[in-house]
Design brief:
Elements lengths: L1 H30 L2 H5 L2 H13 L10 H5 L6 H15 L4 H15 L16 E2 L6 E7 L4 H15 L7 E7 L8 H13 L3 H10 L9 H7 L4 H8 L2 H16 L7 E4 L2 E3 L5 H15 L6
Parallel strand pairs: 2-3
Antiparallel strand pairs: 1-3, 2-4, 4-5
Helix pairs in contact: 3-5, 7-9, 8-9, 8-11, 8-12, 10-11
Length: 294
């Protein structure tokens, strides 16, 4: 009897140790920051100085450093720690880093201004329709940075880290200074009406440097569209009006260039690298699912 009690007690201890170890492993994995651990003396001091003087905009009222020491730890504190260390490692100044932290805060704080965006028009969705986070992207067919970042966003929501978490809706926003942007916008609207929006958008960006307005029908065929139906849609006034109305809406929503992103209606004003975009979208997913603590 006594041996059975001892054995049972030991099993409980082992189980508790296992759970505790799992929690530690999860915490270390989440907060693992190679940049922070490898920073040399002066840069490490700069990172610590920034984290000691800049506050979280959600989840915890303290500085990044103090929130990292709380018993109930905010994931956001680790995200900002990671961001600070990455920027320090790249040689950014304190002013540059704090300015970027402020832009992120203005973009992501729960009470940030939200904008009205119509997503009921042509089907430009990508990602799981049941995703909790909606990313709207105003793009131009002839925007060079759009050509680089939008395919990465598409991959992230369809097969990468954001799959099942984020869905994307694209709004057409031709930039006057980009030759061919109006025609490219109408081509995208035509493809959207024919159910091949993303196929054509990705094809346009894939062959960005070879773009010619007269070759749009051939690109449409490469994207899986019927050439004659595509040309017919291109010539319709209602198709052109889709682009006009999308541009007007963008201007009302203070879109000044492309790409411009909105996360659940909030205008994103911070760094547009794919790493940063994924990070803030995961942050928003944690927020809307109530999973903001470690």
């Amino acid at each position: 009897m006594f041996k059975n009690k001892i054995r049972g007690f030991l099993l409980i201890i082992i189980a508790l140790l296992f759970l505790f170890q799992e929690k530690i492993i999860f915490s270390e994995e989440f907060s693992k920051t190679s940049e922070c651990s490898s920073l040399p003396g002066e840069k490490k001091e700069l990172a610590e100085k920034i984290m000691n003087s800049n506050y979280l905009y959600d989840c915890c009222d303290g500085t990044i450093s103090s929130c990292l020491k709380e018993k109930k730890k905010c994931k956001l504190a680790y995200r900002l720690k990671e961001q600070v260390c990455k920027m320090v490692s790249k040689g950014k100044s304190q002013e540059e880093i704090e300015s970027e932290l402020m832009r992120r805060a203005k973009s992501m704080m729960p009470k940030a201004k939200t904008y009205n965006i119509d997503t009921s028009g042509i089907d430009t969705w990508a990602g799981d329709k049941n995703s909790k986070v909606v990313l709207v992207a105003y793009v131009c067919a002839r925007c060079p940075f759009c050509a680089k970042i939008i395919p990465k966003v598409y991959k992230a929501v369809t097969e990468g880290k954001l799959k099942g978490k984020v869905k994307v809706y694209v709004k057409i926003f031709p930039i006057k200074s980009h030759p061919g942007s109006a025609e490219g916008g109408v081509a995208l609207a035509s493809a959207g009406k024919l159910g091949k929006f993303w196929q054509l958008l990705l094809k346009l960006y894939e062959k960005f440097d070879k773009f010619k307005v007269e070759n749009l029908p051939d690109l449409a065929v490469e994207a899986g569209l019927d050439k004659e139906k595509f040309k017919e849609e291109m010539n319709k006034a209602e198709t052109k009006n889709i682009v006009v109305e999308s541009k007007k809406e963008g201007l009302r929503n203070e879109v000044e260039g492309t790409p411009t992103f909105f996360i659940n209606g909030k205008k994103y004003r911070a760094d547009q690298s794919i790493e940063s975009i994924i990070d803030v979208l995961e942050e928003e997913y944690d927020r809307v699912t109530g999973n903001i603590y470690m």
